[in-house]
Specification:
This protein has 20 helices and 14 strands. The protein is α/β, with parallel strands linked by helices. Helix 6 runs parallel beside helix 8, helix 16 packs across helix 19 and helix 18 packs across helix 20. About 40% of the residues are buried.
Length: about 475
Amino acid sequence: MRRMVVNTTVRRAALSHGGGVRALSSDLSELLREMSNQDLDMRLEAIKAEKKRRQATLIIGAAGAVGKRLCHALSQRGHRVIASDRMENIPGTLKDAVSDGERPGVCVGGIDVTDSEALRALFHEHADENTTVWNLAAPLSVETAMDPTVAEAITVGGMEKVLSAMSEVGAKRICFTDSIGSFGAEAPRENATAKWLTENPQQDPGSDYGRQKRGCRELMDQFRREHGGDPRFAVLPGVLHSNPVWGNGTTEYALDALLAAPHQETKLGLPTGEAYVCPIDPDIAMPMVFVDDLMRGLIALQEAEPHELTEPENGYCIPGLSFTPNELFAEIRKHHPGFGFRVELDENMNKFANLWPETLNSSEPLRDLGYAPEVGLSEMVSFVLQAHEDRNSYTAEAFKAMDKDGDGILTLKDIEGHVRKRLVRGRTTSYNTGQGAMELVMNQLMSELDTNKDGLISWGTFSEWYRNNSVEQVVKRIQASSLSAP
């Protein structure tokens, strides 16, 4: 009975102090001294869990490949996630990601990181001193090289505005995804560390992309000094995943190759694709990480207690695996023996590939975060190829359902017949009928699919479009718009 009283007292005391006991009374101290070490450890873990449960994580730029995965991973761990993005209409996959947990989160669209007032409103409504912030809003390397001025406004200007909004609501912990693009020609090619970046702040990263990442680190360190902030940054290699779409970066060559491989076979009974065009030197190794490993590393960085982080500026590389294009292609050929490629160097991508490290050091994240990568090249290739092949099979079924003559080409008549027969259904009004929306549906579909305006859609064009769209989605969108019209 005595033990039960102690447990209840400790629980009430912990809850009354927001998940942590800040000041123990002499009576409570006495009760705690009577507990065994095992009981104390159990209570301590329960208090930490309750404190974590009450915290929220606000993710800016949440609709990207990393953002969606991070939203889902954090939700699964019990975090309440506020997912914001510049997209006005948040994708259903992101909405599902933040609601798939014990503490459903919320999605907020139309938040441009360059808009100070929009950010301030977001923070004042959804954040407080216990909120952790992830700033993922930044163009990739090739996008930055194409328009460095716009990228500067988003990456560095956006970070400045995020930190200002954080200071207004008292939020302290800001997490940021840095990149191997921060390393320049002076950096070590093997076992690169985040510490090297902090110790060599004047090194030339050789690109606007790297300079902008450095600018963000400097702003976060200033936030630490002036506002008592708790900034943390993760240096990311290339991120590998099985999603159907991705951004315009350098390491994304690997994703392009993995997507191209299944299209070079005829097992779906459809025309084959051309040889993959490799944009970088096929003998240059680059560091990568599979997204499942990355999520473990990022969450470990976010959840670590401040005293556990011993690296300068709380910066850590998130290592995974390293390989050359030739090594990747050899692994792909184990699944698709006929996989072909040719080399056509892209000036920016090949420059970055030769500039950046080949491997990242694993000792610091293992020591402080308990993180080590688990996914190797063989497992990654097998998993990603299977995901693309499954998706291709579904896409091929949709294509064949419309391609009645089996010539591998769709016409407006093919698509219209399919839509009329299979997809126009559901509720109508006296003003708008499903059939009445047909012209709108076909105009929209042909505007998206008939890219060269000849009235013909190839399997290659259709499968590329289908990576992020479907005929069904267009029909539903047009029908919903028609039904809502007066």
